[in-house]
Design goal:
130 residues; mainly alpha; 5 helices; single chain
Length: 130
């Protein structure tokens, strides 16, 4: 990649060549990405290119692309936080629906007493053979 100063000179002296270089570097980057990501990267580049075309000037272009990045970051953050909240609510609902240990002990036919000073083998109920 050319240095910043070289790119700046190219922008002043030959903007078409700079644009060709930009497109070439974008294509190389997308082509070097794993195939599973290439379609998404091309779609993202299309969105960036459309925002650049809609811009009134280079500064407007920069602001539009920056806003796109911030919007996507915000959406990603909301998705992550939303998933975290959804998971917590689901787990809270799940665990509150579970029977208590006492209810489980009362529902089983095997009664055991726990003696902290000795080991006890707890028998499991017999399962019906199919």
């Amino acid at each position: 990649m050319p240095s910043f100063d070289e790119l700046r000179k190219l922008a002043d002296s030959n903007p078409e060549q700079l644009e060709a270089l930009r497109q070439q570097m974008i294509e190389e980057t997308i082509n070097n990405a794993p195939p599973a990501f290439q379609r998404r990267l091309r779609g993202l580049q299309f969105q960036v290119d459309m925002e650049r075309r809609r811009a009134r000037n280079p500064m407007d272009s920069c602001i539009r692309v920056s806003k796109m990045m911030h919007d996507h970051l915000y959406q990603m953050r909301q998705t992550i936080n939303g998933a975290e909240v959804d998971t917590r609510s689901a787990l809270a609902g799940f665990t509150s629906a579970l029977p208590s240990n006492q209810a489980i002990m009362e529902a089983t036919s095997v009664k055991t007493t726990i003696n902290p000073n000795s080991s006890t083998v707890v028998p499991f109920p017999q399962l019906a053979n199919n």
